[in-house]
Structures are given as structure tokens and as C-alpha cells.
Amino acid sequence: MEPSATIRWCAPTLILLVSLLIQPSTSIYCDEDDCYDLLGVSQSANASEIKKSYYKLSLKHHPDKNPDPESKKLFVKIANAYEILKDEATRAQYDYAIEHPEEVFYNTARYYHAYYGHKTDTRAVLVGLLLLLSVFQYLNQWTRYNQAIDMVKKTPAYKNKLKALELERNGGMTNKKKGGNKQINNKKMEEDFSKELELQIKGAEKPSLWELLVIRFILLPYTIGKLLLWNVGWLWRYGVRKAPYSWEDASYLTRRALAIPLDSWTYLDESTKEDLVQKRLWKKSNLESYLADVRKESKRRR
């Protein structure tokens, strides 16, 4: 997306907020000036009179004919006033703003809708929004990930494992016993252990560019097609052919029945997984019986 498109998308909102706080709604058209006064016409002037006055003033203050810096600024203001008053719709909006200055929000919203709504490419706005959300999403994931790592490193379990790894690499001896020449690189050891730890962190996955909203949006047609294909295959195998569930599909049904996240399921030991799958918990009667047994066991332990 071009920078100009991003500016056209962001600028209206920012300017709107500022203008509502410090300026009347009419000032968004010709700043502190009156558009009619800039062109030297009355509010009742017709289109022909406005056009004639504009050409006369623009020739007088054109930078090529009048090098005065103040005249150049006035030329820009005159051109802007003409753009507003030459169009019947925007002139009507301006006249309404003059007659109803108290309706600040309404007048300002109409102005930006007229001047930015038709100039901004909807596709550019959508891409800009996705990019912006993706950036926030990516930064938030990194923040959560780093916080999770830091929290685990502060736990006694982490420190004990790190000490055990140090002893293992030193052949059962601490750094003090082995002497300075045979000391291991503690920093490198901790980095290696941290990498191993990263694979075990639950609830905070390492950010991936492929998980960003903008990438998902681009791949949306592929994702929808893949989902439809998967559902058709499932219906054919288990709805039409009545085939027995494969281990992967039975695991999926079990996870869904128990509302177990994929990450949590991954860290279960294989015997527990197999036991849960064998119970066929995707069937309502089996699930109710299993949950009843779990509640009874929980009460018994209390």
C-alpha cells in the first residue's frame, strides 16, 4: 500500500478528533476564514458569480504573477474555497454548518465523508487495517512469550533443572571442584537449556509470521477450500462408508468432547491418551459416565 493511501486513511480520524476539541465545525472547510469572503462573494451568489470571482482572484494572486509569499498563501486558500463552493453538495454542507454551528459532530462527519470517503480506496483501507492489526498482534505475542519465559526462569524448578544440567555436563562436579580451566560456559549452557524450555512453555507460543492476520487473510481462499475438502472427506469416510475412526481422528473427537486444547493434549503421556480414546468419549452417554466418575473420584479425594 502506498504511503499516501495510509495517510488518507489515518489523517481523517486524527484531524477529526483535534478539530472537535479546538475548532468550530466551519473551520474545517476554510480554516478560520469564511469561504465566501475569500472569493469576495455573498452567500447568495450563484455558480457563475463564484466562478468569475475565482478566476479573477486566482490570476491576481497566482505565484507566477505575484511573488509575494502572503499572496501565495492566499492563492491556496482561494483555490480551496472554490473547490468547496463550486460543488452544490459540498456548498450545501458548508451552508448548513454556517447555519447550525452547534452541530459540531454532524458537520465534521459530513465533511470527512465527502472529502475522504470517495478518495480512499476501500481495498487500501482494508489492507492497512490488517497490517496494523497484524503488527499489534505480533508485538503482543512476543510480549506474552517473553513474559512466560521470564516467569518460568524465576521458578525453583527451572533453577534446579539448570543446576542438574550443570552437574551432568561437569561429570558430577561443580565448577569450583573442577577448577577454572575446566569450567563450562554457563551462559551457553543456560541458552541451550532455555531453547529446550521454549518448546515446553504452555499458553505462549513463539510468534510466527504465518500466524499473522494479514497472512491468514491472503490464504483465506486456500484455508476455506482445505476445510471444505476435509469435511467432505470426513463425511465420506465416517458418514457414508461407516469406517472406524483413525487414531488421529479419534484423538480429535476426544479432545473436542473434553474441550482439551491441542497444546495440552500434546503434553499428555501416550497411555493417558490411549485410555481416553478407548473410552469413546465423543458419544454423549460415554462422556456423561466418564464425567460422573471424575466427579466421584474428586469427592473421594477430598
Automatic annotation (TrEMBL):
One matching Pfam family: DnaJ
Subcellular location(s) per record: Endoplasmic reticulum membrane
Domain (J) ranges: 34-98
Secretion signal span: 1-27
Coiled-coil ranges from the UniProt annotation: none
Top-level division of the source organism's lineage: Eukaryota
Keyword Glycoprotein: yes
GO cellular component entries: endoplasmic reticulum membrane
Function: May play a role in protein folding in the endoplasmic reticulum.
Name the UniProt record assigns to this protein: Chaperone protein dnaJ 50
Species per Swiss-Prot/TrEMBL record: Castilleja foliolosa
Source species taxonomy: Eukaryota, Viridiplantae, Streptophyta, Embryophyta, Tracheophyta
GN (gene name): C50
